[in-house]
Design goal:
With 306 residues, this protein is α+β, with helices and mostly antiparallel strands. The protein has 2 domains: 30-77 and 231-286, no CATH class; 79-227, no CATH class. Helix content is 31%, strand content 15%. It contains 8 helices and 10 strands.
């Protein structure tokens, strides 16, 4: 019994019958939806004489979602890519399903990405408001410490230059080169590769949920590649077929490890199977091609200068 439910015209034209109109699901055959994973697991592992005789569907769904999230962080190609323009405030809100970043880059006029590195020597801390005696000021109603925004650290990071300029319209070009000169002025032998570039820097404020950029990034196009957990929408709640068996083994191990009546040697067996399946899935999804590897290794004899 074939698994394809569309003919060629339906696949290539999509529901609206128009070529390349962004409603097609190109390449969807390589993935299995989370709903099908749950149904297949209940059919194969639940029942008399099987792994568990009885279990709620919600329990299977919980472990399936946790397994998909864990594999999205480790082995699945679950990264997303967005492109935004940095405004005069020098910050961009994090994407709604943001978990962690992979790469942040600024696009130049030729469409080439210039990598931005995290600024480890600055930040935007939460500033406490103080009086003339340097004592904290408390709110009269909530009795909590009064805070301000932005912090003085970030104001100085994006400080303006020239007479009559405002902090939101005119910035001094503060980038890694400036940070480098302030820490190792006149000592080229001490250059840190992390800071020996002038593309710009960024840092993430996890409390406010924004990504701050250096002032040379204002009005520039920035691309942010980030990791999601694969559970944000129904369309992305799916797993590659190379990792399908690994998710089944993960669900099985998660179920038996939470049931007190199952012997420990059974739990350990499923734990080993889950690890082995995850390792195999990682190898399959690494997508190593012999021809591509050979082409890369042709330059192995080139001298690397330090």
């Amino acid at each position: 019994m074939g698994l394809l439910y569309q003919n060629n015209e339906q696949y290539y034209l999509g529901p609206d019958g128009i070529w390349n109109s962004y409603d097609e699901n190109y390449g969807d055959y390589q993935a299995v939806s989370l709903k099908d994973i749950i149904n297949n697991f209940i059919i194969s592992y639940v029942g008399e004489g099987k792994l568990v005789s009885k279990i709620k569907r919600t329990d299977v769904a919980f472990h399936a979602q946790r397994g998909l999230a864990e594999m999205s962080f480790d082995i699945l190609p679950s990264s997303k890519w967005i492109e935004v323009e940095v405004g005069p405030t020098l910050y961009v809100p994090l994407p709604q399903d943001f978990v962690g970043y992979v790469k942040v880059a600024m696009t130049d006029e030729s469409g080439i990405e210039r990598i931005l590195y995290p600024a480890r020597k600055t930040g935007d801390p939460l500033p406490y408001v103080q009086d003339n005696e340097y004592e904290y000021i408390f709110d009269e109603q909530t009795r909590e410490i009064v805070t301000a925004t932005p912090s003085e650290t970030f104001k100085r990071f994006r400080r303006s230059e020239g007479q009559g300029s405002t902090p939101d319209t005119d910035f001094q070009n503060i980038n890694n080169a400036d940070l480098m000169r302030g820490t190792s002025a006149g000592r080229r032998y001490g250059l840190d590769p992390e800071y020996s570039q002038s593309n710009g820097v960024f840092f993430i404020d996890p409390i406010r949920g924004v990504m701050h950029f250096s002032s040379n990034c204002v009005s520039q196009i920035v691309s942010i590649k980030y990791i999601s957990d694969g559970l944000a929408t129904d369309e992305e709640s799916k797993i590659h077929k190379f990792a399908e068996e690994a998710l089944y083994k993960y669900i099985a191990y998660a179920i038996v490890s939470t049931r007190p009546a199952i012997p420990e040697y059974i739990v350990q067996r499923y734990k080993k199977e889950a690890r082995a399946s995850k390792r195999n899935a990682k190898l399959r999804l690494s997508n190593i091609k012999l021809e591509e590897l050979t082409q890369v290794m042709r330059g192995k004899s080139k001298q690397i200068k330090h």
